[in-house]
Design goal:
Layout: E1 5-11, E2 29-30, E3 33-34, H1 35-44, E4 49-56, H2 61-69, E5 78-82, H3 87-101, E6 108-114, H4 122-135, E7 137-143, E8 148-152, E9 156-161, E10 167-169, E11 173-176, H5 177-189, H6 197-203, E12 209-212, H7 223-232
Parallel strand pairs: 1-4, 1-6, 4-5, 7-12
Antiparallel strand pairs: 2-3, 6-11, 7-10, 7-11, 8-9
Helix pairs in contact: 5-6
Length: about 240
């Protein structure tokens, strides 16, 4: 029997510089609904998610409450938390809130997700949770099929990488709360800055497993991503 409590931590602190928009990318609308609202909706509708922690810039909290949350009548408890300067600090603020919500750390699973990945599906969330319960940590990842080149400054190719063992990491990255807290403590003690939460686990010598990700689970970063997202919303 699954006795874990599942808490989603949605991180939405991006500035959207690569999106080339005055509006932050997480607040841009897709078919009249903000991207961030669409992301929250997926976790709000999932029966295993007990709480949602929404991490946003301090100056955006009022805007998020009035524009992203209140008009859409979510039923899962949502806790607004101020982010930090870097994503790593923002996630840690979310983790500290999760500890207050669920002090039984080794019986709590946190699902750390990018606020600008609104096309995450229920099945993928279930797969990540199931494997994380078995192993302590699991992330979705997509096997790279393109030929990958290592290129140095000056645009000179150094080598072609062996793609057989290369994967693109996605979110939600799911961890047992006590384990990911150990990873964050080790990262702070060693002044390590990771590119995602799994990299902090790896740096601390903690195992992370993968489950098959989805090509539809795109991160909206550029105008081209937003264009593609519009097509993904269209019925087949």
């Amino acid at each position: 029997m699954n006795t874990f409590r599942h808490i989603a931590i949605i991180v939405a602190g991006g500035k959207g510089q690569r999106m080339q928009s005055r509006q932050k990318k997480q607040y841009l609308e897709l078919a009249k609904i903000p991207v961030l609202t669409r992301t929250i909706t997926v976790f709000d509708s999932h029966e295993k998610i007990c709480d949602i922690i929404l991490v946003v810039p301090e100056e955006d909290r009022k805007f998020c409450r009035e524009t992203i949350l209140e008009p859409f009548c979510f039923t899962t408890p949502i806790h607004l938390v101020a982010g930090g300067i870097r994503r790593q600090e923002s996630v840690f603020n979310g983790l500290k809130k999760a500890c207050k919500i669920s002090p039984d750390l080794n019986k709590t699973m946190v699902l750390i997700h990018d606020g600008v990945r609104p096309f995450i599906g229920k099945t993928l969330i279930d797969d990540c949770i199931e494997k994380a319960i078995l192993n302590g940590a699991c992330i979705p990842a997509v096997k790279i099929t393109d030929t990958v080149k290592k290129v140095l400054e000056g645009q000179k190719i150094v080598k072609t990488l062996d793609r057989d063992s290369l994967y693109k990491a996605q979110t939600p990255q799911v961890f047992r709360l006590d384990l990911v807290l150990k990873a964050y403590a080790h990262a702070k003690a060693t002044s390590f800055a990771g590119t995602d939460d799994a990299s902090l686990m790896e740096h601390a010598g903690l195992s992370v497993f993968v489950t098959k990700g989805s090509l539809f689970n795109i991160k909206l970063t550029t105008p081209e991503d937003l264009f593609l997202a519009g097509y993904l919303l269209k019925p087949l």
